[in-house]
Structure formats: C-alpha cells, structure tokens
Amino acid sequence: MLELLETLVRDYGYAALFIGTFLEGETILLIAGFLAHSSQMDLALCILVAFCGSLAGDQTAFYIGRWRGKKFLAKRPALHGRVERVHRMLDRFHSVLILTFRFFYGLRNLTPFILGTTDINPLKFFCLNAIGAAAWAVAFAYAGYAFGVLVVDKLLKDVHHVQVIVVLAAVALFCAIWVVKRHRRKKMARLLKQEQAKEPDDDNENCRS
C-alpha cells in the first residue's frame, strides 16, 4: 500500500497529494514530505496543496452534513455512539475540537459531517477549520521531511505513532500559548488594580489643592 501511494505521488505529484488530503491525508502527506526531503517535491508547495485539500474536504463534509446529515444519521444507529462522542467533545471543548479533530484517527472524516448537523456558525467553523488545516499540513509535511527515510521505512508502517508525536507537539504548543496568555491576563489585571488604587490618591491630592 505504501509503495502504491509513493508511486502515485511520484507519478501524479501535487494532484495526487490534493486528492489524498481531500479524502484522508496523513500517510500521503508524510510521503510528500519525504519526497520533499529528497528534493523531488517542493516542501512549501506540499504544505499549501495539503492545506487546500484538507480544508476543501472538511468543508465539503460539513455542508453535506448540514444538507442531509440528520436524515443520514437517523437511519444508521450504528453510528450513534460516535456521534454522541463528537457531541460530548463539542460541548466540553468546542473550539479546540474543531482545531484538532483532524489529528485524531477515526475523527477526521466523520467530525466535520457531524458538526454540520449542529447549529454551529458556518463562518466560525470555516475560520477554525482553516487554522487547524494549516497547523496539520505544516506538522505532517515537516514530520515527513524531518524524519526522512525513517518515515517510509518504519514510521509509515504505523502512521498512528507519527500522529501521537504530532498531537503531543500540538498539545504542548496549545498549552504554551495558554500559559502565555494567562500570564498576560494576570499581568494586565495587576496593572489595572494598581491604576485603580492610584486614582483615589490622585483625587485626594486634587481636593487638597
């Protein structure tokens, strides 16, 4: 299977990458990153094509879900467990789910379809989905590029290992951003309190004068 995907990418280049990322994407993007490592493809163009393919695929699934999703799911009780799982994650994490669902195996294709059946704002979904698609494209393209031959020979035999590495890196990044923002909010709150504490003193001095 890996040899077939590599042959497709070699023969059809960015068109194969776009179609592959439109449908699923992790394995074919890792292969494209590896080929970029060996100068057979351009890494920046791989990232751009993967971003467009991933975004287009998820937006298509979202609007199909908005159009016929509820009727489709009502006739397939076997999917209800996965649907409930996505809804629970949406209730608890909301924006984080949209940003990260494509990093988790088994959620990539179904999640945007299910989200289309909810009342989430389409513009909000698009913006968060675009950010997530960009992060995903950069992460997996660079994983294929950085690991080089190891990706094709070893890691691609179990792509979930690569997914775990990328997810952990993404979580670490989100945590770092959250810590920085929290520190800034606390700093701004302290400065605001200090300013508020100074105001009565300034008023008292004005009254004396």
Number of helices: 9
For the terminal residues, how far apart are their CA atoms?
86 Å
The dominant shape is flat
Helix content: over 70%
List the quaternary state of the chains.
single chain
- Count of distinct strands: 0
Describe the sheet with the most strands.
Answer: none
Please state the structural category: mainly alpha
Number of domains: 1
Low-confidence stretches: none
Quick structural overview:
This protein is an all-alpha fold. It has helices at 2-23, 26-37, 43-74, 80-93, 95-100, 110-115, 122-147, 149-153, 159-208. The protein has one domain.
Task: Explain how this protein is built.
By secondary structure, the protein is mainly α. The protein has nine helices and no strands. The chain has one domain. Helix content is 83%, strand content 0%. The radius of gyration is 23 Å and the shape is flat. The mean pLDDT is 75.
